[in-house]
Amino acid sequence: MPLTPAIEEPQIHESAQGPRVTPAASRTAQTPRPVPGPRPVAVPRPGRPGPVRPAPPAQRAPQAATGTVPAAPVAPAAPSVSAAVPQIQLIPASVEGALDAAEEAVDLLLDTGRAPGDILVLTTGDPHPWAAHELSFGEAAYWALHDAKDDVFYADAAQVQRATDRPVVVFAANGGPAGAMAGALPVALARAGALLIVCGDPQQINSVLGAGV
Q1: Residue-by-residue DSSP string for 114-168
Q2: Which pLDDT score is estimated for 33?
Q3: 3-class state of residue 72 by DSSP
Q4: Which of 8, 38, 47, 169 has the largest count of CB atoms under 10 Å?
């Protein structure tokens, strides 16, 4: 009697299971430059009509901790010695591009949360168009805007002695008389409470402020 061959179950090889799907490479997101400081409510740039930037969402107050053990009192932190020394940021730029670089720095400051009234912009050469426009209404009205501290204020670096302190000072070395930067930049550093941004030739800036810039 003929023997019936045993029926073998088909084996599925690994190569027949279909192509393997590899995960797509993650895309690296661009990281914006950090600029410190909260902005309570966004305000349009002076002289630049456009949509008002939305205010950041209100922060939720922290809930009180529950438990039977009372929280231990926290001793106040000692003030830092370097807290009074403003940070200095250098943006290399030509004489012709220094004012544009300063404008980009101001935009970044506002976009990352700085209040417009925190910012003072100084120019060594041609004045900012906003400053030229406001000065057409007279010196008194112009400096009244400075004293109000409601918005970004643009001024000639030669008048830095008249300007009061602000958390952020943006200094545009865009030409002007010889020695204009050397005379005004140290005063601008003294006016900056937290941050001084200098847009101009790095070699000239370092010669005024020192190699630590």
Answers
A1: --GGGEEEEESSSPPHHHHHHHTT-HHHHHHHHHHT-S-EEEEGGGTTTSPPEEE
A2: 52
A3: coil
A4: 169
